[in-house]
Design goal:
The complex is a heterodimer of chains A (111) and B (114).
Chain A: E1 4-7, E2 10-14, E3 19-25, E4 32-38, E5 44-51, E6 56-59, E7 62-67, E8 72-77, E9 86-93, E10 99-101, E11 105-110
Parallel strand pairs in A: 2-11
Antiparallel strand pairs in A: 1-3, 3-8, 4-5, 4-9, 6-7, 7-8, 9-10, 9-11
Chain B: E1 5-7, E2 10-13, E3 19-24, E4 31-37, E5 44-50, E6 53-56, E7 65-68, E8 75-79, E9 88-95, E10 104-105, E11 109-113
Parallel strand pairs in B: 2-11
Antiparallel strand pairs in B: 1-3, 3-8, 4-5, 4-9, 5-6, 7-8, 9-10, 9-11
Classes of the chains: A mainly beta (111), B mainly beta (114).
Chain lengths: 111, 114
């Protein structure tokens, strides 16, 4: 059974800091990996989708990397802002139908 | 519409009652998914539709849960004889054709069973 783990569970940083969120998964036979952002009481916003053949994807201040062989992905956020405060979730797709999610990292960026 | 919409945004019901939660996917998306998210957890898969048919319902926790998508667009998740443990946020997602395509999520319905 695929398990997805996100470390740390919570992170608090001062504004302007660069930071890295980690995601690990037990089954390396994934088709893709998605990073999402979830604001309190809201749904999920897709940030980046990395296909299994790719090693990284970038969108603005966000960069996500994927290392299938080691079962790891990282989300790098440059020059963090208070508006980046949210819960960040990673999810892997193994084929079939479902995404399997981690429990998320709750990020707080302090002004 | 521009994105996935879900109604109601909040639903409070009493134990034992029946509830229906509605999802309107992105226009043209053939794949539709339901997930359930408990407090402090990541979403967990419930059911996947490809068109009108449920292609995978293995995530439904028991036979009190049922979902339909009669015309291949709007879907309704139905919960009979609700229990307090059913309290969660129910999320709907759609994608253009399923498979490895990106999933887009709605805002969710927060269900509270008293």
């Amino acid at each position: 059974k695929q398990e997805v783990t996100q470390i740390p569970a919570a992170l608090s940083v001062p504004e302007g800091e660069n930071l890295v969120l980690n995601c690990s998964f037990t089954d390396s036979a994934i088709y893709n990996l998605q990073w999402f952002r979830q604001d309190p009481g809201k749904g999920l916003t897709s940030l980046l989708l990395i296909q299994s053949s790719q090693r990284e994807q970038t969108s603005g201040r966000l960069n996500a990397s994927l290392d299938k062989s080691s079962g790891r992905s990282t989300l790098y956020i440059a020059a963090s802002q208070p508006g980046d405060s949210a819960t960040y979730l990673c999810a892997v797709y193994l084929g079939g139908s479902r995404l399997t999610f981690g429990e998320g990292t709750q990020l707080t960026v302090n002004p | 519409g521009a994105g996935v919409s879900q109604t109601p945004s909040n639903k409070v019901t009493e134990k034992g009652k029946y509830v229906e939660l509605r999802c309107d996917p992105i226009s043209g998306h053939t794949a539709l998914y339901w997930y359930r998210q408990s407090l402090g957890q990541g979403p967990e898969f419930l059911i996947y539709f490809q068109g009108t048919g449920a292609a995978d319902d293995s995530g439904l926790p028991n036979d009190r849960f049922f979902a339909v998508r009669p015309e291949g667009s709007v879907s309704t998740l139905k919960i009979q004889r609700t229990e307090r443990g059913d309290s969660a946020v129910y999320l709907c997602a759609s994608s253009s054709s399923g498979g490895a395509n990106e999933q887009f999520f709605g805002p969710g319905t927060r269900l509270t069973v008293l």
